[in-house]
Specification:
The protein is built from 15 helices and no strands. It has 295 residues and is mainly alpha-helical.
Amino acid sequence: MGKNLKNSLDKGEDEGVFPFFCLCFSLSFLLVFSGCSGFIETHYEKTHLVQILDELKQSHCFDEYIKKESQQQDNIITKISRNPLFQKKVEELLRDHRKKLIEFPASSVEYFLYGRLLGLLGKAEDSVYFFSLSIEKDPDFLWGYYGLGLYYLKKNASHQARPYLEKCLFQNFRFVPALIAMAKLVSENNLSQSLFLLYSARRFEPENPSVWHSLGNLLASKNRLPEAVECLEQACLLKPSRQEFWKDYSAVLIKMKKYPKAIDALTKLLEFFAEGPKKKRIEKTILYLKEIIQQ
């Protein structure tokens, strides 16, 4: 990445990150060691080790399946914003999810995915019920806790969101969605901790566009614009189909008075909208920026 971004990453170690990292590492070590020592002594046989590896593989498959299904949901919602006729696709998707709930009534994954889809469709209150059911089916299901944490975070109920997100991170600090959400939760009061969480997420999943987007927005909110614009540009490159990435990227470019690049980003943003007030506002902004350049 660019020089500004490299400096930003280096700065993370100078902004109170190291003590926080030591605390997290110490807690993680104590929890893991105390929980695993007895297990290792009693389950040393090869057959049990093979079983553990199978469970880890299954957990990884669940994560990949959830990401794949979530991507499908996001794509359909994006298409609706461009063309309302795609509403039929949403009905088909809802039917498919309800069918899976009947076929796999014990699947915490399917309850989570159905709740997530309801949230995307603006039925957040209904999604809480299905996130809770996913945890009821499997009390160790991290995505269910994450769903509830994100729900309360979006309602600005930080005190209610925190326990669910902490549950995710204490159980698995490499769970990137929870790292991103927790970084947002603490960003107002603890910039160093928020940066540490996002830098950690970046190390775990360097190709995750949501990590770059969140990091860019955080840096922009602290007026660290050169670093922010590089992060937001990277998010757009990694996933050009996300409307909010182009929106936030263009906003920072305008703030930095990089008008030609801002026009390019806004032109890309136009592709996400059918004819209507939002599209007209973007077109008006583009014309205004062109006038500034010509002056």
